[in-house]
Design a protein that fits this description.
mainly alpha, two-stranded antiparallel ribbon, 85 helices, 4 strands
Length: 1685
């Protein structure tokens, strides 16, 4: 009960947990965790034995659990091991395979986690037991591992969170009785307690330190020493923590002196005894303890001197210990306490500490971790907090060190002191700045970087000191120095990166510069403004612009306010070299010409230009307030890649022109022109800045209205230019062209004047002119003049240009070009690329100028064709194996512009022009190999750019040609010209052609509304042409093909007035660059589905034809892509293509012989399958109406259709067509012409072949099985129609005949039908049935017209047994009994005959009509039909005897009709057999009076020539004998009196079958009454040979004359009426009779007749008859008798 109460709840007190049995569900859930913890720990102390019942707490109530949970088992094991006898019971407590120590450690860890996670308060009884168990393991020396002791120690520390006093008392009790090697864990636990619960340890500090002091002398091992040092360190730190936060502690305050007095003896002992330890771990422990105790002793003044004495020892440990981070941690702790006690520190100590720490930081041989580095840095900061001035002085002294690393460290430490110094008021920042000023010129990069970092930190503190702002100049100087070094280009990669990093740091400083500090604007304005104009500071313009704009705003806001002059502002203005307004404008415009360069310097320049408007000129303020925001908005809408640099320069020059016109000061304008010239000279030749400045010079001259000045400037540039220098030539052209905007006549006059001076040289100067030619000066001059004329035309007013373009512009251009090609009067074909480019560009510029001048009317240029001839000559002259110059691209552009002028070219001329241009570009080598051959990366980049520009120019030319004739017909012709290159085997040529196509289609798309066309008829064919290239091997080709398709889609959208899916198409085009084949396939598939649904049905054939042409490509990827697109089109639009199916199939059929690859043919077959899916009837009609009915391609197509999922549907359609083609239509065949007759004969064969191929390739037989009831009669009908016929080759062409012979069954159409039927049955029947048909010879019989009826019977029998003959089949086949076709009637009769054998129940309903039909057909004109009718009537006896009895009279009469004299033997034999079956079934009673007739009818055929007929007669006779009733037995016995001899005679019938049947019949007959004599003979003769039976006949003749006479009559009947074999047998019997009885029994008349008959038989055709007759004549002597007579 006590244990139960302990589990249910505990009394209030430490660690008690109360539980309310009536608590709500919410309270129960809230208290669940402490309850579980209490239960777990209580279970620890309640375990009394192995049979103890464990309890679990669930929902506030205890409940039994037969098995303890894992935590309970852990607690119980722990308590068991707590017993004094735990070592003895260890084997019982721990299962086999478990380690006790490992399990015990896990138990402690689990309890520790539970105590930490839960409330952690335990009942006192439980607590004491747990603490005792853990304390024992902590102190245990043997049998307990280190891990277990550590876990027990951690558990005690965790328990101390809620039970601190209990745990501390337990540890203190063991601290007083120390002894043994394992007691070090007591110290470890005490240290952990002090570290975790510092303030709660205060009451125990004195007692603990006193105990430690008493036992210090007994510490012997290094392990215990480390543990004791840990206690000293942690308890000293706990004391320091208390002294700094004593007000938060609930205990009464204890003074510093009391604590220091307790620690000081321990400190002295450590100093005296432990400082000289050698072990590394001991040194670290002593170092930690010393630092903590030194920090504690600093609180008492009397001990401080002793502390300062030990400081050198502490710093000296940097050289003693291996891991100096322990020293740094101790020093950092000491400095923290030193900062807290706030006592003065001697300068020497500051110097010592700084030196120690600085040496550690600057020692490059030591690799400090990041944490250690932060600790060392913190030491310096703490030292500065104690003594800032001394620390700064020390660091300043270190800046003069020879070690760069020491200087860098000092600068970084000074930077770290900036923020603390600024926090104290900023008075200490000036010393910091002064300290750094001495290293501004340090050459080291790391020092420079450190200085810049310091500057950034210093300026970020809003310094109001001029000395600090002096460092800004150093930032600009460093930036300029780095820029200069980078511009030199002789740095290594690492050095260049370092300089770039310095630049970035300088910019970062300037970006973070705060110019809003009060009282500094006037000082900073001149100092910052002087850095705007110099080019070396261009990179700083972005932050500089921001600062100046902010200062300008402050200056504007401060206008009108009276205030004091800022300190040093006047001196700053005097020292600064402020730029002139013209210089500022020129400089900022140059920078703005490249707006995105340098991180947006151009944009910053424009903004600064607006801010400096009043500084530049007062008149431009209003204009710039409008213009500059417009320019900035233009830049904001465009990125660096999308910005047109030429257009942007035009905007800037226009802005400059407007500004100069606004200023309206000629002096200012001329000064500005002078400034532009000055700045242009400071830039590198051919630089972008210099080119822009010369253009600006031209604009300034155009704005200047002082004509003499303008004329003088133009002359100066014309006559003073060094034409050997390209930069000077370009400068002259820019200036002259710019001035022509306002002074066109003046410029033309001066240029004409200069050109005339070149031609007016004296003849004596011929050698000089030759020298100038070789030097290139003359060519350079002419080149410059040619360009100048073109540029002037472009800038000239349009009206003035048109008035003189032919004479004053184009004429001089051609004159200077030709003059440059002449030397001493001789004309040479020039190879000067620059001269060609000059002429080409000049022609292009003149053409562009004339286009703008003409307005809505096209201007006319009479020499257009002459210029075109020159330009195309340049194009043709360019090498096709390399792209060496931009002549092609420039010529293309010029031709495009020139083509827009009158007179217009014809379509043939335009096509020839396009073809010549394509032949110049397309064959160029691939770009990648050309790049590999290049010498440098720059050359490769230039080549790539040149190639891109050339293709762009080609696109503009294509656009210009298209604009001349905006019709779909001209577009088709241009695409046709490009198609030659699209199908090229070289991938780079295809890529270029696709690019040109994209440009062409893009131009057509933009201008589609101008065409006036309501539809786009080229959509389908063009998509089919270009779509395969989305799968090209080249990624750029794929993307360009996608772009083409996008243009086509948008054109079609405009034509159909729909919105195409442009966004998705663009996304898919981007995905076409993916290298992943799967992603590429997905993108192409999706794109095809989008595009194909816009192809109209009327253009389907065009698309299919173009796609199939693409499949013929030599490139497998493109061919596959074309096929995939074809399939996608048919999948998407196949349902709309009913009318186009024949044309599409015809196209596919024509292409099939050229596509022999399996993959391509597979795609074609899929296409046909898709068409068949949507339009099965149309596909079948198309395939059946081919001129070559069953050629290989058609056969293969049928086979493909059989493998599709629509095969069943196709099979149904084919079946209906075969049914219709084979139906009887009397009277129609004769009316058809011969050609139609042959077609009608061929059509069923084609359909049959199609069915055969479809069925043979079916994937699943369900479709055939479903159609079998209809398909079986149709095929049987086709078999009957083709039975005994030949292939109609005479009605087919020779090629068709060849194909028919190769794909039919040996020219036998019936065999084709049989093969088709066999294929159908193979899909429907088990293999055993087909094997049975082959074994029975059914197929051979069906093919043979003579045995066809037997084959039908065999086939029908198997089908009946297989259960595939259904009522619909029977109904259809029985209708054929009335067919005019004999073959069909035969098949129907044979089918019905076999059906009568064992009709299934549902057939009984139609049995009566069938029986009636058979009775009717028993007199059919066809003997085979009558035969099958007889067989069917006979089969009634087996199948339906009741029906036979019902119609016995009619059946017997019908069968007897088959025994008439003129009936065929086969019919008679079949009738006899049928009568035999009927007799067996009806018996004699059922036959009635017919019995007598049947017996006599059978006997009449005993000597028939046909063996089958004889056998059938014997069969009927035997059946009558066997079934004779009592009434008819005497009659039959009487009949046997006259027939037994014939029967005995036929025992030797030459036919084995007849002989066998005869023997059986005779055996049945001799059983009749009165024939005992014959029965004995026959019994003996059974099983004997024919010769033995003849002997029996002889014995019978010897016994009785009557028998002899009967045998003779029978024998005579045989050799007189029978066939050859029967006649021979009859003669043999007659010979036997003569041999036994002689001839005395013959009358004279009979002997004479016998002799005559034998003489006739002696001449018989059969040798056996001849021999038998001759032998009998000789034996009888009748031959001699005749000779005597």
């Amino acid at each position: 009960m006590r244990r139960l109460r302990a589990l249910r709840g505990f009394s209030p007190g430490e660690g008690a947990v109360r539980s309310d049995p009536v608590q709500t569900a919410e309270a129960s859930r809230a208290d669940a965790r402490p309850l579980v913890l209490s239960f777990q720990v209580s279970s620890l102390v309640e375990v009394a034995g192995p049979d103890l019942t464990f309890w679990r707490m669930e929902a506030g109530r205890p409940s039994r659990s037969p098995q303890p949970s894992p935590p309970l088992r852990t607690v119980s094991l722990l308590c068991h091991t707590d017993c004094k006898t735990r070592r003895k019971s260890k084997a019982k407590l721990f299962p086999s395979g478990l380690r006790p120590q490992g399990d015990r450690e896990e138990m402690y860890r689990e309890l520790e986690r539970a105590v930490q996670d839960e409330d952690g308060r335990l009942p006192s009884a439980v607590l004491s037991r747990v603490i005792a168990a853990a304390s024992r393991d902590v102190r245990e020396a043997q049998g307990v591992t280190e891990d277990v002791r550590a876990a027990a120690s951690d558990l005690l520390v965790a328990l101390a969170r809620c039970h601190f006093d209990s745990v501390m008392c337990e540890l203190q009790s063991h601290l007083r009785v120390l002894g043994g090697i394992s007691e070090d864990f007591v110290f470890v636990t005490l240290g952990k307690l002090a570290s975790s619960y510092a303030l709660r340890c205060v009451p125990f500090i004195g007692m603990t330190l006193f105990t430690l002091r008493a036992m210090l002398s007994r510490v012997g091992s290094s392990r215990t020493l480390r543990a004791v040092c840990g206690v000293l360190e942690q308890w000293s730190k706990a004391t320091n923590s208390y002294l700094s936060r004593w007000e938060k502690c609930p205990f009464p305050r204890v003074g510093e002196a009391q604590f220091c007095s307790s620690v000081y003896p321990l400190f002295c002992h450590v100093v005296g005894s432990w400082l000289d330890c050698e072990e590394e771990e001991v040194k670290q422990a002593v170092l930690g303890a010393m630092a903590a105790m030194m920090g504690l002793l600093l609180h008492e003044e009397e001990h401080r001197e002793r502390v300062w004495e030990q400081l050198p020892w502490l710093l000296g440990q940097y050289q003693q210990v291996q891991d100096t981070s322990w020293v740094t941690k101790g020093l950092r702790y000491f400095l923290e306490i030193l900062g807290e006690v706030k006592i003065p520190v001697p300068k020497a100590k500051v110097q010592a500490i700084g030196t120690a720490v600085h040496s550690q930081l600057s020692d490059e041989t030591k690799q400090h971790s990041g944490e250690h580095w932060s600790e060392l840095r913190s030491c310096v900061l703490l030292l500065a907090r104690v003594s800032l001035e001394d620390t700064v002085t020390f660091l300043g002294s270190q800046l003069g060190s020879k070690s760069e690393a020491a200087r860098v460290v000092s600068l970084d430490l000074l930077r770290a002191l900036v923020r603390p110094a600024a926090a104290e008021g900023g008075q200490s920042l000036a010393p910091l700045a002064r300290a750094v000023r001495g290293v501004l010129r340090d050459p080291g990069r790391e020092v420079a970087r450190a200085v810049l970092r310091f500057t950034k930190e210093l300026l970020g503190c809003s310094v109001q000191s001029c000395s600090a702002w002096e460092l800004v100049a150093h930032v600009f100087a460093r930036f300029s120095q780095a820029s200069g070094r980078l511009a030199e280009g002789n740095l290594s990669e690492a050095e260049a990166q370092e300089e770039a990093d310095l630049q970035a740091l300088c910019l970062d400083i300037l970006h973070s510069l705060d110019v809003s500090i009060k009282g500094m604007s006037k000082l900073l304005w001149p100092r910052l403004l002087q850095y705007v104009v110099p080019a070396q500071y261009t990179g700083t313009l972005v932050p500089l612009s921001r600062c100046l704009r902010e200062l300008a705003e402050r200056r504007e806001s401060a206008e009108g306010e009276d205030g004091e002059e800022e300190p040093d502002a006047a001196a700053a203005r005097d020292q600064a070299r402020l730029p002139t307004p013209q210089a500022l404008l020129a400089r900022l415009l140059v920078v703005a010409a490249a707006p995105h360069a340098g991180g947006g310097c151009g944009i910053a320049a424009l903004r600064l230009l607006q801010a400096l408007s009043t500084e530049i000129h007062g008149a431009v303020g209003m204009v710039w307030a409008v213009k500059i925001p417009f320019l900035l908005e233009h830049l904001a809408e465009r990125s660096e890649s999308s910005l047109d640099s030429a257009e942007w320069e035009h905007f800037l020059l226009k802005f400059l022109r407007t500004s100069l016109e606004t200023i309206e000061s000629q002096a200012w304008t001329m000064a500005f022109s002078f400034e532009l010239n000055q700045q242009a000279g400071s830039y590198c030749r051919l630089s972008r800045e210099q080119a822009f400045l010369y253009k600006a010079v031209g604009v300034s001259l155009a704005a200047c209205q002082h004509v003499p000045y303008v004329r003088g400037e133009i002359r100066k540039y014309l006559f003073q230019t060094n034409y050997l220098e390209a930069s000077e030539r370009e400068a002259m052209i820019s200036v002259v062209a710019g001035s022509a905007e306002s002074h066109f006549p003046l410029a033309l006059e001066v240029v004409h004047e200069f050109g005339a001076t070149m031609e007016e040289r004296p003849v004596s100067g011929a050698f000089r002119r030759l020298k100038e030619y070789h030097q290139g000066k003359r060519a350079g001059t002419h080149t410059a003049l040619v360009l100048a004329y073109g540029r002037m035309a472009l800038c000239a007013p349009r009206e003035q240009l048109l008035a003189c373009v032919e004479s004053d512009v184009v004429g001089p251009i051609l004159r200077h070009y030709r003059a440059s090609c002449q030397v001493l009067g001789f004309t040479f074909s020039t190879k000067d690329v620059q001269l060609k480019l000059a002429l080409v560009r000049s022609v292009a510029e003149v053409s562009r100028a004339m286009q703008g001048a003409g307005g809505s009317q096209r201007a006319e240029l009479c020499c257009k064709r002459e210029l075109l001839s020159v330009l195309l000559g340049f194009v043709r002259a360019e090498p096709r194996d390399c792209l060496a110059s931009p002549v092609r691209q420039e010529a293309f552009l010029a031709v495009g512009h020139l083509n827009k002028l009158k007179p217009s070219l014809s379509r043939e001329e335009s096509r020839d022009l396009l073809d010549q241009c394509l032949q110049s570009v397309m064959p160029l080598p691939a770009l990648e190999p050309a790049e590999e051959e290049g010498a440098t990366a720059a050359g490769a980049l230039h080549l790539r750019a040149l190639h891109a520009q050339t293709m762009g120019a080609l696109g503009e030319l294509v656009t210009a040609l298209l604009e001349e004739d905006l019709t779909s017909g001209w577009l088709a012709e241009m695409l046709h010209v490009l198609e030659y290159w699209l199908i090229s085997a070289r991938e780079w040529e295809r890529e270029r052609a696709l690019q040109a196509c994209a440009q062409l289609l893009g131009a057509y798309e933009e201008r589609f509304e101008l065409t006036g066309e309501n539809s786009f008829g080229l959509f389908g064919s063009t998509v089919g042409l270009l779509a395969p290239f989305v799968c090209d091997s080249l990624a750029t080709s794929r993307q360009r093909a996608g772009a083409c398709l996008g243009h086509l889609l948008r054109i079609q959208g405009k034509a159909l007035e729909t919105t195409a899916e442009e966004d998705e198409v663009q996304s898919l085009c981007q995905r076409l660059r993916a290298p992943d084949a799967e992603a590429l396939l997905q993108a192409s598939s999706r794109l095809s589905k989008i595009v194909c649904k816009y192809i109209p049905p009327a253009q389907a054939a065009d698309f299919v034809s173009a796609a199939l042409d693409g499949m013929l490509s030599a490139r497998a990827a493109c061919a596959q892509g074309a096929g995939e697109w074809l399939l996608a089109f048919l999948e998407t639009c196949g349902g709309q293509l009913l009318m186009q199916v024949p044309e599409i199939l015809s196209i596919i059929y024509i292409r099939m012989p050229t596509m022999q690859q399996d993959t391509l043919r597979g795609l074609l077959f899929k296409a046909v399958s898709l068409l068949a899916h949507y339009h099965p009837g149309a596909v079948i009609d198309s395939l059946l109406h081919k001129q070559l009915p069953v050629d290989s391609e058609t056969v293969e197509l049928w086979g493909v259709l059989g493998r599709t999922f629509v095969a069943g549907q196709l099979l149904g359609v084919l079946m209906e067509k075969l049914k219709d083609s084979g139906s009887d239509r009397p009277g129609t065949s004769s009316a058809k012409p011969e050609a139609d007759d042959s077609q009608a004969a061929l059509e069923p064969l084609k359909i049959t072949r199609a069915i055969f191929e479809v069925v043979s390739t079916l994937q699943s037989p369900e479709a055939v099985q479903h159609l079998l009831p209809e398909l079986l009669p149709v095929l049987l009908q086709q078999i009957s129609a083709t039975l005994g016929k030949e292939m109609p080759f005479s009605k087919v062409s020779g090629r068709g005949k060849l194909f028919l012979k190769g794909h039919t069954s040996d020219d036998n159409p019936c065999r084709l039908s049989l093969e088709t039927l066999e294929a159908v049955l193979r899909a429907c029947l088990h293999g055993g049935w087909l094997w049975l048909l082959r074994k029975q010879g059914a197929w051979a019989a069906l093919e043979d017209p003579r045995a066809h009826h037997d084959g039908v019977c065999l086939l029908t029998g198997v089908l009946l047994r297989a259960g595939v003959v259904s009522l619909p089949v029977v109904l259809v086949v029985t209708q054929w009994l009335d067919s005019p076709s004999a073959n069909r009637r035969v098949m129907a009769a044979a089918f019905c005959a076999e059906l009568m054998k064992a009709p299934v129940p549902w057939e009984r309903r139609c049995l009566q009509p069938i029986v009636g039909a058979l009775l009717q057909k028993s007199r059919d004109p066809s003997g085979t039909v009558r035969q099958m009718a007889a067989r069917g009537l006979g089969n009634l006896a087996r199948g339906t005897p009741e029906t036979l009895r019902e119609h016995r009279g009619a059946v017997v009469a019908a069968l007897r009709s088959g025994l008439e004299p003129r009936v065929a033997a086969a019919v008679a034999a079949e009738s006899l057999l049928a009568l035999a079956r009927v007799a067996e079934e009806l018996r004699g009673k059922g036959l009635g009076a017919s019995f007598r007739d049947l017996a006599r009818d059978a006997a009449a055929f005993f000597n028939a020539e046909e063996a089958a007929l004889r056998a059938a007669a014997f069969t009927l006779y035997g059946a009558l004998a066997a079934s004779a009733s009592r009434r008819w037995r005497p009659f039959l016995a009487e009949e046997l009196g006259s027939t037994w001899a014939s029967l005995v005679l036929h025992l030797g019938d030459p036919d084995p079958g007849a002989c066998r049947v005869c023997r059986g019949a005779l055996q049945l007959c001799v059983l009749l009454p009165g024939l005992q004599w014959l029965r004995q003979s026959i019994a003996v003769g059974v099983g004997l040979s024919a010769a033995e039976l003849l002997d029996i006949c002889g014995q019978l003749a010897w016994e009785s004359l009557e028998h002899q006479q009967a045998l003779y009559v029978a024998a005579r009947r045989c050799f007189l009426q029978g066939c050859g074999e029967v006649r021979a047998a009859g003669l043999q019997v007659a010979g036997v009779l003569v041999a036994h009885a002689g001839t005395v029994w013959l009358t004279a008349e009979e002997a004479m007749l016998l002799g005559a008959a034998l003489r006739v038989l002696r001449r018989d055709a059969d040798p056996r008859v001849q021999q038998a007759a001759a032998r009998l004549l000789q034996d009888t002597g009748l031959d001699q008798l005749q000779r005597r007579r």
